[in-house]
Amino acid sequence: MCLLAGAVEACQRNIKFNGSVACSKVESHLADARVYMLTHPKEFDVVDLDPYGSPSVFLDSAVQSVVDGGMLMCTATDMAVLCGGNGEVCYSKYGSYPLRGKYCHEMALRILLACIESHANRYKRYIVPVLSVQMDFYVRVFVRVYTSASAMKNTPLKLSYVYQCIGCDSFHLQPIGRTVSKNTSVRYLPGFAPVVPQECSDCGKKFNMGGPIWSAPIHDQDWVTSILADVKSMKNCYPAYERISAVLTTISEELPNVPLFLSLHNLCATLKCTSPSAVIFRSAVINAGYQISGTHVNPLGLKSNAPMDVIWDIMRCWVKNHPVKAQPADQPGSVILAKEPVLQANFARAVASLSKAQAKKVARFLPNPERHWGPKLRAGRQITSKHISLLGEEAVNGCLNDQDSERDAKRQKIEKSNDVIAES
Q1: Where is the composition biased (Basic and acidic residues) (predicted)?
Q2: Whole-model pTM?
């Protein structure tokens, strides 16, 4: 679905290139995708939104055009907006305010899911995330869309605001809603608040508040495991098998009910201490009776259901064994270390400190496939010396060739129309 005739022609050439089967199944249209979806309600089994930038303008029509139980796939490449570079722009497009923490890329995923859910709710529909991925320079989500006025009432239970300390980066989630059950009836009530005091109990600094975000699971773990098994059984069919397998493997090992994640390096930077290895830190969390896992978003990120006071107690115990230089008393790290740990951390190696993939030394994070990996220039933009230095001459030459071909096509079209006018 395109608004440019040249783009439709390119689609048609691509369809022919893929053979007779594609020609019998795939169509290209010169039309506004939003209007087309609105005029075909609940008609498509799968809708894939992959615009250059934000998909927000397409979401309202997309959630209406998917059949009940159908799949909506959505990509967003405006990561600077979603990750907190322009918070007010993010709020205007997605209805959520982002925070600039280490977890900002996962927060971007959850903001997009919350936005899709908001659009679906307007039509008594709701979403069930199947797979949510942040990689390279974009986020991409796969969700099922269902219709149910009663199930839609659970939406406030799946959304939360986020409080992030400006001093130590501790974060806490504030659910929007809650339920109270009595006999067979269920009442939906506002969530209890506040979950944090005015000042951080760990370092004494203020909080920034962001959201709302999707705080329910963002993957269907059974579906991910099934797809991973299918991919492995047909690995010769996928040129990008190693990359697909690495992402799905990491996702399959994530804790499903833990929104956002910690950065071990950030914790140590706050305390100005040497960093324990990930295995030692994982072991301490597990020995304290909590769960911990990695995340596909960041190779250094750690998801855990341990509360922040337990995390800081573990770090206090680590610093006792690995002393640090004295810092000014008003620094967040000094305030945290001034308190005695309530929990005595056990750093003995735990059996579950390594995931199955790590134990088998399966690759989970691969390097970019080429230099200057990232989104290419939007069509029609003027190329400057800055673009050449950032993207490289080969990439820029490719953009220039594409722009030249577009200009030639436009010029030929204008010349033909002028010839027709002259003849008449």
Answers
A1: 404-418
A2: 0.85
**Residue 267 sits in the same domain as residue 316:** yes
Q: What is the pLDDT of residues 377-397, one digit of tens each?
A: 666 556 666 555 655 666 555
Same domain (yes/no): 225, 235: yes
* Residue 420 banded pLDDT, cuts 50, 70, 90: very low
Helices (H), 160-240: 221-233
225 and 214 housed in the same domain: no
Phi, psi (5° rounding) for residue 387? -65, -40
**Which residue range(s) make up the domain with 286?**
262-359
> How many structural domains is the chain composed of?
4
DSSP 2: B
Residue 407 lies in a domain: no
Q: Looking at per-residue confidence, does 312 or 375 come out higher?
A: 312
Neighbours of 153 (CB within 10 A): 15
Using the predicted structure, report yes or no on whether residue 109 has a pLDDT greater than 50: yes
Structure tokens at 53: 């930038």
| Alpha carbons 357 and 247: distance in angstroms, whole number | 12
The mean pLDDT value for 74-102 works out to: 94
Please tell me the distance from the alpha carbon of residue 152 to that of residue 154, in angstroms, as a whole number.
5
Long-range contacts of 99-102 (CB under 8 A, 24+ apart): 99/162, 99/164, 99/171, 99/208, 99/210, 101/164, 101/169, 101/171, 101/260, 102/169, 102/261, 102/262, 102/263, 102/266, 102/298, 102/301
